[in-house]
Write a structure and sequence with these properties.
The complex is a heterodimer of chains A (201) and B (235). Chain A has 201 residues and is mainly beta. In chain A, 7% of the residues lie in helices and 39% in strands. In chain B, the strands form 3 sheets. In chain B, strands 1, 2, 9, 10, 11, 12, 13 and 14 form an 8-stranded antiparallel β-sheet that branches. Chain B has a two-stranded antiparallel sheet with strand order 4-5. Chain B is elongated, with a radius of gyration of 26 Å. Chain B starts with a strand and ends in a 6-residue tail after the last strand. The chains are: A mainly beta (201), B alpha+beta (235). Strand 6 of chain A pairs antiparallel with strand 4 of chain B.
Amino acid sequence: MARLITFKAGNSTFEAGIVKVDRSKVYGWIEPVYTDNQNNICSTASLLDDGRTIVVSGGLAQKLVDTKNQEVDKSSLIASRLDGSVAELKLSVYEEPVNLKECSMNDLFDLDVTAVYQLEFDADDSKDKALECFSQNQVYTFDFNYRTDYESADAIILKKETDYFILTGIKHEFEYLSNEVSAQFMVPEETIDEDLDFGMM
Amino acid sequence: MARLIHISDSKGRDANVLFSAKTKKSGIRFLTGDGDETHQIRVLKTTVNGSYEHLLKKYNSDVEIANALVEGDPEIDFEKTGYIIESISKVFVDGETKPCVTVNVTEKVFNTAGEVIEERIPKELLGNIILDDSPLRPSGKLFAKADVYNRFVFSKRYQLSHTNGLTFDFLFEIAKELDDKKSLMLIGSGEKGMGPLVFQDGGKGYRVFLEGRIRDKSYILLLHLSNLELKPVSV
């Protein structure tokens, strides 16, 4: 049985598991096949900048280092916001109930979606309660953390026909653009009484 | 960075205008106890000689590899392990981990059940957003916002912006028309404006919808990119 997330919308609470939805599950997928002239399968590897050393999958590692390039122990680090304040961990959606806040469908048009999840209900009771929360096709927003982390993704939960989906990603604010012309470039309308001098000598 | 896109409106007027994406950087940094900044580097763990496949060839069995690991460090290249990597290139290698001189590429197409339904020469998509002879056309197909918000997954969006007073008028009018109709307009390649858009050579194809918003004498005109419909999958 999938782990369940508890969602709270107003006085209603329901529980559901989530399943990731992606293109491969909706349309299928494409895999490239690389072969040499003898039709043997080739694989990809990395060539280091010395031009000689080949590294296969698993041969590289990411390390966190200080300004002297000394490796540091991740558990000893302090997470800080850009303003210098200490950042606090935000719990995974599995760790505490998720509070849903009603928003507008227009919020979806500001969200760059990076992941989509489909809700799976184990109990009819939970499905009925979800149905109540979405009876007017409401759209809700919340902060999403699949794992406990210092930053959350923006998320929107909505209903489509009989299914429920969570869309997570980054919400942007776009700037209205105007065409303000500086007063110095504005040309006042006026009638020219003088004859134009086409001789211009 | 803003790039140019060549589009036309419903009256058949066309112009090159700018488009750009918004990005959001992480607002968290990790500091040492002394307040030192940290950063990530890439280092070499092991070369081909230290890979499992190479060790298996050398020692013939997992048990022998385990014994060798207990007795020594066959997986470590003491000259190179720990090397900080600035840049790497992708190479194709054969079964012996030797670079391939010539590589032929095909692709297998799988359905959602994981069955191969086609083997073919890869289709390379060419960028089609800035063609001098053929601007991107609005298809004329309007989708009410209330109908599409739970129909398509918009994974990217670009904001269009004007380059001068003339293109301001051009974009403002498009935005106003869409704002009045509370709808998105499908915009695309081809004569009917129904084809997918590819923003760079070798990139992915997207269905693109134009949305306009108006406030006083200012506008927001967005390209919403989608390559996924919101559909349930079988679990």
